[in-house]
Amino acid sequence: MLRRLRLITGLILFFYVSLHLLPLILGNHSLAVMEFVRPGLHGIWESWPGLVFLYGALLIHLGLGFYAVYARRRWKGIRLGEVLQLASGIAVPVLLCLHIVSTRIAAMKYGINPSYPWIMAIYLKYDTMAGWRQAAALVVAWFHGCLGLYYWLRLKPIWQNLRFSMFGLAILWPSLALTGFYKAGTEAAALTDNPAWVQIILREVGPLSGADKAMLYHVQDMLLLGIAGLLVLSLMARLIRRQVQKRGGFVVVNYDDGRDHRFTQGMSILEASRDCSYPHASVCGGRGRCSTCRIRIRHGQDLLPPPSEDELKVLKRVRAGPDVRLACQAIPMCGEIHITPLLPHTATVSHGYARSDMAQGKELTIAVMFCDLRGFTRVSEDRLPYDTVFLLNRYFDAMGKAIEESGGHLDKIIGDGIMALFGIETTPEEGCRQALRAAKRMADRLTTLNTSLEQDLDEPLRIGIGIHVGTVIVGEMGYGRATQLTAIGDAVNTASRLEAKTKDYGAQLVASKAVLRTAELALPKEFYEEHQAEIRGRVQPIKLIAVQDAALLTV
User: Fold this and answer.
1) Phi and psi at residue 416, in whole multiples of 5°?
2) Which of 295, 550, 530, 519 is nearest to 440 (CA)?
3) Quick one: which of 478, 341, 351 has its CA closest to 412?
4) What's the structural domain count of the chain?
5) Which residue in 87, 285, 482, 508 has a CA-CA distance of 20 to 30 Å to 402?
6) Torsion, CA 46, CA 51, CA 57, CA 60, rounded to 10
């Protein structure tokens, strides 16, 4: 509930700041336009309901910021983004204090009617330090709001489509506001050279005596002292809470690598991991949103309270088992608990959603293809590195498109070799037909490529393709950014050996007879030769076909 309240009040304040910057952006045109739109844009906030709504949201949001300081159990392991969010949130009211006092409180207590010409003249001529402070408040408030929006939206699927446009807007909006602030302020400063203009503006704004100004400065000092006092009070309350919790006992967490860590009761398991520098994934920073910190409880599940409704909602989203909990929400009682983190510490936002069975690991019968360039070392040895990269990229582009157009999945590129999978989302029969269709297209594209590069090549490019069908395990494997959907199993090894056999038979394509049988395809005898070969790693020999020119396939 506190998180929802923080989000709602934050959105209200961010909307206000965005609307507040619009007149400053119009200041790039003129000071007169800036003042003309002020009543329409600010009128709703200057009414009593608007004031209660706005300053109520400000006080609640600020109070929740101090509560976040109190509630944090460990500063160790805090991320830079969290530090910036917390620091900027407290800095905003400090920077805005004088502006609030000199406009809103002055208007309520002394009947002052602040206008942009008056404010801009003060900031750019009479009190430039206040102007710098106001510009800093603008930047810090906008940054704090954008950071909050980022932490909220980045866990949503729509974020990938919005992120570039929102990043551009996050840079453009305050930049235009700052330039408008300076231009309108410079215009107002120039107008102050006319005493008659100054008298008109002061008459419109209203009188303010020296004693009134002193009182406003006193109010500002009191507000600053109040903010500092609340921060100190939050830190002291946090210290007292920690001392009380230490008397409550300790918890020992055992990780699957054998490491043990003893910590004070009251900390979550994620906080305990950070406390002992254990690499534990947590994309959302421990807010219970992303699920990347989820763990399996091997022992000591009775030490944990039942999951909350919000935690259950997240666990249900990722289809977690009954022994799985979110480490950031799991606060164990005294005792020993054994856990296994379910995701690597490099987990990303995408891991926070339910994944397909295939991504998590599934046994499938598919067709596997390996393709390799023949004699490319000889072709590239006298070329500049740029020419070699250009040639390979042209080759990979042609082969990759042929594979994808045939319905295959380009698994990986190793040197000048390619691995592809067929039938992942269809049937073994269709997968084999797709693989043979891809071989034909690859041969055709290679001919076209050789024709376009004949002036640059001493000899045409040649390829060898191996295809086999069998049962493999398909899943996302790897480390960090190198994680990808791939396959392991005997069929993968066999397909690789068949690709090497193309050298022995002087053929462009070598495929197992099982591929033809599964594809239910009968090729004319004159198109291929039949062989039986020993394959390293297999006990039984394999029957295969060797096709001199894959472009002749009729699939």
Assistant:
1) -105, 20
2) 550
3) 478
4) 3
5) 482
6) 140
Helices (H) and strands (E) in the chain, counts: 18, 13
Token pair listed for 473: 């395990």
> For residues 310 and 303, what is the distance between their CA atoms, to the nearest angstrom?
20
Beta strands across the sheet bearing 294-299: 260-264, 250-254, 335-341, 294-299, 324-326
Can you give the pLDDT of all 555 residues of the chain as single tens digits?
788 898 899 999 999 999 999 999 999 999 999 999 988 888 788 888 888 989 999 999 999 999 988 887 777 667 788 889 889 999 999 999 988 898 888 888 888 888 899 999 999 999 899 999 999 999 999 999 999 999 888 878 788 888 899 999 999 999 999 999 999 999 999 999 999 999 999 888 888 888 988 999 999 999 999 999 999 999 999 888 878 877 778 899 999 888 889 888 888 899 888 888 888 888 887 777 888 899 999 999 999 999 988 889 888 888 888 889 999 999 998 999 999 988 887 777 766 665 555 556 788 999 999 999 987 766 666 677 777 888 889 999 999 999 999 999 999 998 889 999 999 989 999 999 999 999 999 999 999 999 988 887 778 889 999 999 999 998 878 776 677 888 999 999 999 999 999 999 999 999 999 999 999 888 887 788 999 888 887 778 899 999 999 988 877
Report the phi/psi class of residue 137: left, alpha or beta, with left for phi > 0 and alpha for psi in -120 to 50. Answer: alpha
Rounded Cα distance between 526 and 160, Å, is 52
The string of DSSP letters for 297-356 reads: EEE-GGGSPPPPHHHHHHHHHTT--TTEEETTT----SEEEEEEESS-TT--GGGGS---
- With tokens 């003309």, the residue in question is 36
Segment (H or E) for 510:
strand 509-512
Token pair 């997240």 is at which residue? 314
The Cα–Cα gap between 159 and 166 comes to 9
Instruction: Look at the pTM and tell me if it is higher than 0.90.
Output: no
DSSP type of residue 483 = -
Beta strand pairing call for 542-547 and 528-533: antiparallel
Same structural domain, 339 and 457: no
* Tokens matching residue 522: 């009968």
Q: How many residues does the chain have?
A: 555
Q: Which of 241, 258, 284 is the last residue of a domain?
A: 241
The boundaries of the domain holding residue 322 are 250-352
**Residue 274 and residue 409 in one domain:** no
Encoding tokens for residue 293?
Answer: 């910190």
Task: Kindly state the helix (H) or strand (E) to which residue 99 belongs, with its residue range.
Answer: helix 80-100
* Same domain (yes/no): 16, 116: yes
Q: Are 57 and 132 in the same domain?
A: yes
